[in-house]
Structures are given as C-alpha cells and as structure tokens.
Amino acid sequence: MTPPFRRLRELMAQLEDLERVGGLLSWDQETKLPRAGAEARAEQRATIERLAHELVGGDELARVLDELGDDSFESGSLEAALVRVARRDHEKARRVPARLRADMTRASALGIAAWWEAHARDDYRLLLPHLERQLELKRRYVECFDRFDDPYDVLLDDYEEDMKTEKVAEVFAVLKRELVPLVAEVAAAEPVDDSFLHRKWDREAQRSFSLGVLERLGFEPTSWRLDDTQHPFTAAPSSRDIRLTTRFDSENIHGIFSCLHEFGHGLYERQVGEELARTPLAHGASSALHESQSRIWENLFGRSRSFWSYFYPRLQEKFPAALGRVDEEKFYRGINKIEPSLIRIDADEVTYNLHIILRFELERELVAGDLPAHELPDAFDAKMDEYLRLRPPNVSRGVIQDMHWAEGMLGHFPTYSLGNVISVQLWERARAEIPDFDDRIEHGEFAPLRDWLRERLHRFGRMLPPREVRLLAAGADVDPGPYLAYLRRKAADVAGLSP
Amino acid sequence: MTPPFRRLRELMAQLEDLERVGGLLSWDQETKLPRAGAEARAEQRATIERLAHELVGGDELARVLDELGDDSFESGSLEAALVRVARRDHEKARRVPARLRADMTRASALGIAAWWEAHARDDYRLLLPHLERQLELKRRYVECFDRFDDPYDVLLDDYEEDMKTEKVAEVFAVLKRELVPLVAEVAAAEPVDDSFLHRKWDREAQRSFSLGVLERLGFEPTSWRLDDTQHPFTAAPSSRDIRLTTRFDSENIHGIFSCLHEFGHGLYERQVGEELARTPLAHGASSALHESQSRIWENLFGRSRSFWSYFYPRLQEKFPAALGRVDEEKFYRGINKIEPSLIRIDADEVTYNLHIILRFELERELVAGDLPAHELPDAFDAKMDEYLRLRPPNVSRGVIQDMHWAEGMLGHFPTYSLGNVISVQLWERARAEIPDFDDRIEHGEFAPLRDWLRERLHRFGRMLPPREVRLLAAGADVDPGPYLAYLRRKAADVAGLSP
Prior knowledge:
The structure is a homodimer.
Chain A: H1 3-31, H2 38-56, H3 59-68, H4 78-95, H5 98-121, H6 128-143, H7 151-157, H8 165-188, H9 203-217, E1 224-228, E2 234-238, E3 241-246, H10 254-270, H11 287-301, H12 305-318, H13 320-323, H14 328-335, H15 349-368, H16 376-388, H17 404-407, H18 413-433, H19 437-442, H20 447-456, H21 466-474, H22 480-495
Parallel strand pairs in A: 1-3
Antiparallel strand pairs in A: 2-3
C-alpha cells in the first residue's frame, strides 16, 4: 500500500466506525432508550454526525485524494472502488455548507416531533410549517449542486446513485398504465374471503413462529437479534451484528411478514464480503437494491405457495383455533388478497405500487414548486381517488400517514417500487439458475437461494455503482416487464382472473 | 459568555457526548451485542476513544484554555469548575503520548481476552505475559508524570483525584489492625445458621422482587432500565438514561443485593444537577465516592433490620416454600453472616475489606517492581492465609478471580474500601439529620434518604475536587472510625459477640 492509500483506508475506517456507531445509537433509541433520554441522545447523535461530516468533507481527505490523483488502481479492485466511493462521498459533502447540514438535521428532528403530534391529533396544520421548511431546505440543498436535468435528480441521487427522475417516471408510467386497470378488474371479480385473518392473534405465538422461520432461513443468534419497535427497521452495527426489529400486533399477522422483510435487509448486510469490513463499501449498493432484497423474502418467497407448503402446518400448530379449519389454499389466497386500502405499508403487492407512484408524483411537484404544501392534502386525496378509488377519511390515514416528508426524506419513496421491480428480475434469474428451485423451498431447503443472492449480489457491497450491480446481478437494468407479468399471474391465481 | 468560554463549553459538550457514547457502546456489548460482533465493536470503541482523546489533548483546547488564562470566574461557579476540570483533564491527556495510549488500549483488550481463557482453564501462565505487559505499560505511564511521592499515586489519581498512597496505607493499616482480630473473634463464636440460603432460587421471582424494590426506591421506567449481564455494572448514557445491569443466579440471592448496589451508582448519576448536563462535571466526583453510594444502598440500607422490616414479608410472598418458616431475625442474621470466603465479590461486609487490602498491598509491590509478576500467585496465597486463614484451591478462585489486573486497572481496588469507609460517614450524618430515620425506612419511606443524598452530594457532580466533596457531604475527610464502629456493632449483633 502506498502511504496516501494507507491513510485513505484509515480515514475511511474511522468514518465507517462513526457511521455504524450512529446506526447503533438510532437502533438503541428505537428499541431500548428510556423515554426521558431522548434529548441527550439527540445531542449525541448530532455530535457523531458532525464528526463524520467533518471527516468526509474535511481537508485531510481532500489532500489524500489529491495525492492519490490519477493513481490508476486495477479496475474492479477494492482499491479502485474505495477511491471512487471516497471521492464521490467527499465531493458531495464538500458542496453542502456545514450550516445548511445543521439546519437539515435540526429540521428533521423537529419535523419528526411535529409529525407525532400532527398524526395523533389528525391535524395537517401542525405539520404544514415543517413541510414548508423542509421544502425550503431541499431547494437550498439542490442549489449546492449543478449539472442536473431535474432538481429531483439531486434528491434521488442520495438514495440511488445516478438514477434519473426521467427514468423513474418512465418505469412508473408503465406500471400505472397496467396496474390501475388490473386493480379495477380484480375489484369486479368475486371477492376473496380473508375474514379468518381478522381476529385476535397471540403476539408471543407470532414471535415464536417468526423466530422459528428466521432461524431456518439463516438467522443465527451469534450474529443476529430481533427486538420490538414501533416502526420496523434493520440496523447493522457490523456485518456480524445484524439487528432486525418488528412489531407484533394482536389484530393481524403483519408482523410475520415484517420479519421476513427485515430479514431481507439484514441478509444483504450480513453477506457483504468480509474483505470490505471497515470501509464504506461494506453496505448494500443502493436503496432500491436493498428494497429488492426485503421484497424477495417478504413477497416473492414469503407469500409464495412453496414457502407456505413448508411452513403452513407449523403455523397451524401455533394457532390451532384460528387456522385448524382453514386449508392451505384458503390461507394462501387470504394473505395475497388484492384490494385497495388506505395505508401504504399494509397494502397488497399490486396496489402498493400505486401508493408509491402517487407519492413520487406529488414529491416532484412539491420540489419543482408547482404544488404549494398547503394544497398537498387535496392533491393527495385526488390521486387516491384516481388510482385506488378511495377517499381517506382524515389526514392521519391519508396524506400524513408516513413520516418521510416530515423527516425530510424526499426522493426515497420511488426506491420502494424500483425495489419491487428489481426483486422479480432477480427472482426469475435465481429460479432459472437454481435447479429444482420451487421444489427445494417446499422441502425447507433455503440455503440455495441465500447462497445465490450472496454470490450474485450481496458480496459486492458498494464495490460497483448500483447500475453496474443491477446489470451484474439481474442481467439487465431496471425493467418493469417481469414484475408486471408476475403481478398479472398472481392476480389471476389469487382473484381467479383470466391470466 | 466570552467567546473563549463559549468555545470551551462546545468542546466539552462534544467530549462529553463522545464519553457517553463510549459508555453506551460498552453497555451494549455487555448486554445486547451478538457474540460475533465483538471484533467490529472493539474497533468502534477505539475510534470513539481516539477522537475523545484527540479532543481533550488537542491543540484547540490548549488554545482556548490559554485564552481563558487567568480569567477568574467566581469561585464555586460552574464556569470556574468547568475550567478547572478541563485544564486538569487536558494536562493529563497531554502528558501521555498517543502511541502509549494506543498500546494501553490494545493491551487491555488482549488482557481481557486472555483473562477469560486463563480463568476458564485455571492456568496462571496464560495470563502472566499479559500482566507483565500491563506492568511495563503502567511504568511507562507513570514516567509521563512528575512531582509524585510514590509511583502508585499516579495510578490512584486516575480514580481518586489527589488521593495519596500514603493516606490509603494509613487508613488500611487501621482497618487491618482491627479487622483481622475481629474476623478471628467471629470465627471462634457460635456459627450463624444460613443453611436456608443455600437452595434453589427462581430467577424470575428474584427479578420481580428486585424490580419491585427498585421501583419503591425511585427507579422509574421513563429514565431507568435493568438488563442481564455477566458482571454487573451501571451505565449512564445520560442522567435521564440510567441502565443497571445484574445477574440473577439460581444458587443464591446475591442478585437482589447486586441490584441495590447498582442502584446506588445509578442514583448518583441520576441526581447530578441538570445544569451540568453535557459537561464533564455531570458525573460522580470519584470512584470512592461512587462506591460509597453503591455500598449505602447495598449494605447500610439493604442489609439493615429497617429495610427488611418493610420488605421481608414481600420476599416471603415471592418464596413461600423457601422462607415461609424462616423468621425475619433468622433471615437478617443469615444475610449478614460474617465468614472468610475465597471470592471477593461474594464476601460479607467485614471480610470484604481484607480482600481489598491485600490486593492494594500486592499492587503497590508490583508497581514498585518489588514483586515480579511470576511470584504473584504465591504472594496472593500467603496474604489470604495471613488475613483470612484460607488457602485458594486454584488460581481461578484465587489470584486471578478478578479481571482488573488483566485489564490494566491498577489503582482502582483501594477505592472500594475507601468507599465503604465513606459510606458510613455519610450514613451516620444522614441518620443524624433526617428525623425518624429508621422509623421511616421501616414504613417504606425512602424519599428522605434519596433527597438527602441529592442535596448533600449528588447534585454537585464533579463541581468540586473529591476531597472538598467529601468534606462538604460527610463533614470530614476519610475517617475509618465510624466504619469500624459500625462493623463492630454489626458483628456483635449478628454473631453475638460482646460489643
């Protein structure tokens, strides 16, 4: 190693330590922190963030990158990747003044607090000034950059490097064109009976079943945890310390699927190549690629006939009263029922994307200044009516159901549906390449899928830009074709439409 | 605030955030971290420590302290205290080269790992090179300082500012002179029957009883937690986020007393003045003062007749089979039985100090170079024989029972017994100043003691040097008189000696 490269590794290792520590502070806050400790924790997180920012945008890193200059490391090598990512992260950090970054951090904390209040009181006015502030800050943030076709590109780039607004709009136009009529078609068919799902479900039995499933999939207690939280998420303080969180609700069995979803995120972080440890390469490559992993395990795997063929008898054992008389076919159709509903995170696989598309469209208008924040509730309701034929009864179950905007997370929503699209591209490829794919899942053999994902995707981490990772892993860039075909087949199967 | 003082506050706030974050990382490691995550965690802790060290020993702080110069803040003001503590911590940090500090951190991690191995295999040779390394590092550390009478003073000063080896030796000589014969006297008397304690104790029942006690004492779930661990300790990520840890063992009820012990540490951190938040003043003033608090709640309070007069019926309810036929008097004598035993942390109030005194004497010889580390086991056994008339059957239950030396914690042991001494000085004063003291405890009124400790001690944090805190809170500096009188009364009461 040359001295400047050695110093680059050291700086990146420190930065990575700070990022992981920040993640742990946040995990702790959502799962363990006594309530009164929140204020001090906010200061601690801000200090860690500031130190990380000083490091990544700092003069020493600038000097080191300068010294490395055109040092041409072998393409595809860890060295080349580290320099590329360090340079990218450094340049982005340099463009944003410390003052603006501090304002954004503060606005995010205040926005989250206001969201809880507004959501509990069902009052949009409590949130409005915070949304206006977020939009103002986002515009200032966008102004720090140049060379973009659409200001929304700048926001998107923070989650999905090099993804363009135009490309998202194109993919979403295809989805919308197919899915709006498909939803209408399902609505006109004989309704699926899922009444058996609407009863009380013992939370501890759900936990014990879910843990049993996770352990079969690869959750080992030496490297994984599962904790309770309000809004499920996954933290990875290191690739050998994967922390899933979930919420088991006695009104439904969503918690079981949420565990599978978070397992997908966790497995990606767990299977990143060990040689990438303590570098910023040791993460999933992008938000959409991460989401593709959670969707594979939650939906393509977790709502499939093959999965339940293996696990349904075990679920029946846990819930003999509720499921003793429900056969596997009825259960399968129930958990896959397609029906427009108000809440994004509870939506079925088909309607889910329409929730995302309408948020993307609204975000673009907000950022462009074409939609003032005070008109957002009406605009939201109008799109809910247009795409899903639903009218939210209030703002808590409508426009302010998600915390994202209050928190300043604009540009993130589209990666959820892009993740769905990519998940099927990967799934189809895995099926083609793994012999007896469905058969093995039906018999409880899950290692082949896990190993395939590691080999094709996980181990690379951020070694390559997301687009190249997509090409490498899925064999093609984002293509909604396979996903739409999958949804049509599923709709036909579940709702009894002609395929 | 003048600009340099404002900058001092900012730097100290950052430093304090890093210290608290480091504490949380350690708490997490001992209670939540999946085993395989330990390696990455060690790197993260090292990075946080290094950043803290760079800050406290750094040029910017040097400049700010220089600018503040002789700015004479009002004596007793927060400003004056902050400058004093910042200057002290800065000067200590400046004297120790980064390289030596890194060596110490590494030796500590390796020493702990070696300790586990040596302890499990009962093999002193596995630990010996690590102890030798620790002693070599301690000598290099001592050499960084000047103006001391005894090299051990330098080590002691890290835990007990300004305490001198000579003073400790003087106090311990008094204790030893009285306690060795007292132990012999008890051994000659009729033995106390504590056979009822040696049975199986349900761990969940112990937890539920302990939590009930803690909640009566002031443990509120909005600011406190209790978690399981191997070696109990208390973490305070902030003064509103107090985390006790404990270990309930089915072989004994030590876990109940361990909860009371940790509660004492936690309450000190909880009741530090709110105006000290995000400064290095927001901690207990020294190790001995901290230990005095844990000993008050564990022993003076938790092994008193008054305490059990209130709680014993509740304990009997939790353990009807074990305690239904054991009356309060018999229970009181059982939990206070005085008897030489091998393991320091399980020792009774009287013999405990002899375990500490022998360790202090050995540490001094080790540091002075008068005792080579390979002769330590024999020296340890000889003192065990001399003070307690016991011969350890092996090294795991003898010389390497504690992790302190392997970890590099030399100079810490004496603060345990100093804490005992101070605890009785404080206790006697509280009894004199709180009307109907015993009577109120017997009736479950614990707020007066808690409030007295806050007013007299806790709220000051590190505002004053420990010696001044001792004078202020206890009305006198370390004085073994009241403690010895207390132990003699207790021995007479429990073992039926003539007082």
